[in-house]
Amino acid sequence: MGGGSYKASDWTKLKTSRKIDSSSVDQIFKSRKMDDKFNPKFIQVREARDSEEHPNSTPIAIGVDVTGSMGYLSSEIIKNSLNELMKKLYSTKLVEDPQLMFAAIGDTTDEAPLQVTQFESDIRIAEQLMELWIEGAGGDSPEDYQLLWYFLAKHTDIDCFNKRGKKGFCFTIGDAAFHDSVTGGNIKAIFNDDAKLYRTSELAKMASEKYELFHIDLNAGKMSASKYIPGRVISVSPSEVKYLPEIIIAAIQLISGKTNDDILNGLDFSAKQVVSRAVSTLNVGGSIKL
Questions:
Q1: Pairwise CA distance, residues 96 & 54, whole Å
Q2: Residue 60 in contact with residue 128, Cβ under 8 Å?
Q3: Are 145 and 110 in contact, with CB atoms under 8 Å apart?
């Protein structure tokens, strides 16, 4: 997957046809159950492949907590953040041939613990995102963000790593803590894989072999994932959700060895303040400060 290119005009047409700006979360995300095409139980592999059109594919997986209080975040992403992230990725050419996958993350006790789209480079990213079921179950108890790590480690095949030894990127986003493990029964039920218990720390290690892992904590650092991915947790307040595109891009830039000026260039004062603080503690071979 991953053909085509993202165009702002395509997003404008989609927003108009779906009346996204004036619609509620329930009106935007109309699915009331998980579609089999996004159910990891029926997905052997998701691929991010090079092509003549995109010879240097870079997979970026973004997993969003869709339980309980996180409904507002799903709305923000579809209305604003997705378009801004894609526009900036393409206009700045920060990442070669980006291919985005979105994941809806819940808890192993939910009806839909994990849903995953294809890796795409065009408006199909948004179209698939809007087909996900925003289940809204659960509350602020620990969630199972590590299910996405398992899927990326076991069920993705990415040319950037296979051909060039470069890692993809994964950002999980939410306001709850991680569970410490996934039982073998849940692995079997969710992925239809051999039943085996995995510690969350083990899954972080597995996924980090092919992906640069980050967790964006929307609970002001109170639910830190640092014990699983030390130096890769970004603390953001709910009021700063609108800056997610800039924060994600800044983290990718840090991995790419960009300078402080590269990262903050072009941002307005408020964005500079938020981005600088949010990623200043990341351990990626350097950090940025105003």
A1: 8
A2: no
A3: no
> Under 8 Å CB-to-CB from 255, ≥6 apart: which residues?
169, 212, 284, 285
**Interior/surface letters 8-37, b for 16+ CB within 10 angstroms, e for the rest:** eebbeebbeebebeebebeebbebeebeee
Output the tens digit of pLDDT for each of the chain's 290 residues. Answer: 556 777 878 888 888 888 888 888 788 888 889 999 999 999 999 999 999 888 999 999 999 988 876 767 777 777 788 778 888 887 777 788 999 999 999 899 999 999 999 999 888 888 998 899 988 766 557 889 999 999 999 999 999 999 999 999 999 998 888 999 999 999 999 999 999 999 999 999 999 999 999 999 987 555 668 889 999 999 998 888 889 999 999 999 888 888 778 888 888 899 999 999 988 888 875 445 54
Q: How many CB atoms lie within 10 A of CB 72?
A: 12
pTM: 0.93
In the sheet with 98-105, reading across from the earlier edge strand, the strands are: 114-116, 98-105, 58-65, 168-174, 211-217, 233-235
CB 84 within 8 A of CB 245: yes
> Hey, what are 107's tokens?
């808890």
